[in-house]
Amino acid sequence: MIDRNAIAEHNRSSELRLARDFEHLAEVMADDGVTTAECVMTKLTGFSLAAPSWALGTGGSRFGRFPIGGEPRTTEEKIDDVAVLHSLTGTVDAVSLHVPWDDPSDPAGLREYAQAQGIRFDAMNTNTFQDNPSTTDQGRISYKYGSLANSDPTVREAAIAHNKQVIDLGVALGSSALTVWLADGTNHPGQADHRDQFERVADGLHQIHEHLPEGWAMYTEHKPYEPAFYSTVNQDWGSSLLLAQAAGDKAYCLVDLGHHLPNTNIEQIVSRLAMVGRLGGFHFNDSKYGDDDLTTGSIRPFQLFLIFHELIRAGDGRLPELAYMIDQSHNIKDPLEDLIQSTEAITIAYAQAMLVDQAELSDAQNKNDAARAQQILQTAYRTDTRPLVAETRRRCGAAIDPLGVYRGVGYRERLIGQRGTSTVATGL
Ligand SMILES: [Mn+2]
Fold first, then answer.
1. Is the pTM of this model over 0.70?
2. Which of 79, 116, 226, 414 lies at a 20 to 30 A Cα distance from 272?
3. Ligand 1 mean position, distance from CA 321 (Å)
């Protein structure tokens, strides 16, 4: 753990500079009259991000993995790491579990453990893309040819049963959502009938949906390719929407920023899904080529800003209450450092989007004034909102410079001392 005194101690060295930068920005904002620094900070304080339990360890590719050491060995240790992120950023207060990589034998105990650290359980994730003893009826079936889309009803039933079990576990943990990411698809033309596969998945999702308790949501997550390389059943937002509609009222579409083909206009997808009331949430990451799972905002920060801008427009000036989560692969960086940097990028983009003069923009749009519309967006995007984000953190007892504190207290070295150098955090 990183205690509050250590954070306060580090904050002292940067407080003066922050006060100067913050004061200047607050004055500029007051002059502009779009919103106030206090208003932006109130909304930033209310913003909550989740970290997935699988992102607390080193990622990797099919070519290899280079563990950093000190990776969490248990779900409790994953919660410890999220609590550290939360104490540094004031934003990451939830963890998203993945079953069976996380398979708590004592859910009530785990719930208490998380609660004691101020961490809640975000959406539960199922796994029907690997063969694990607990999800394959002790190896009697295999997901090699798909799960809900499989032509074999026994496999489909096992996949549905696994999803229902994960919902029950989520209820015990105090979660209220299930994310279903399906690897189902085909690797070869003609391998399976596209329509048959889709209809089986729609039916399976509907059966799982029937098991959702009151107040729960189900998220469908699309992805154009990988692990299936010729076709994916839920390949794009249109298919995801059709599947959510087939599943039922509690089903919404999840947008993973990396799950789009290059140059896709993701912000427009966000607008469409919000328009029809089926936008469920986000898996934040960034990409250059495909599902790269790079640090959020590291490649396309403007896209991230535009996404938040669309969200604020969809929420009529307020960010809709959706499931906001980071989903990245930390291949060469310390996972916690990468999550700190992503959290920073996400909150900066959110703050920038709050600076857009929505009334002026609508007016420019109605008058077909493209130059003024661009000027309005660029003015917000080019504002350095880092002082707003840092001051928000300082006021809630988090770090002005989260990465600096993390390194300053030697947290990773401490973890390696406690957990060793060869621990593995995920089932991949
Ligand atoms: Mn994802």
1. yes
2. 226
3. 18
The dihedral built from the CA positions of residue 384, 386, 388 and 389, taken in this order, carries a sign that is positive
CB atoms closer than 10 angstroms to residue 171: 15
Place of tokens 């206090």: 38
Residue 50: in which H helix or E strand, if any?
A: strand 49-52
CA of 221 to the centre of ligand 1 (A): 7
Q: How many CB atoms lie within 10 A of CB 318?
A: 12
User: In angstroms, rounded to a whole number, what is the distance separating the alpha carbons of residues 19 and 31?
Assistant: 18
In one-letter notation, the amino acid at residue 59 is G
- Closest Cα partner for 357 from 309, 321, 391, 303? 309
Each residue's pLDDT tens digit, 276-331 = 999 999 999 999 999 999 999 999 999 999 999 999 999 999 999 999 999 999 99
* Centre of ligand 1 from the C-alpha of residue 39, in Å: 31
Structure tokens at 28: 């500029």
DSSP label at residue 304:
H
* 3-state secondary structure at position 164: helix
Q: Give distance in angstroms: CA of 289 to centre of ligand 1.
A: 16
> What is the Cα–Cα distance from 187 to 177, expressed in whole angstroms?
30
Q: How far apart are CA 180 and CA 186, in angstroms?
A: 18
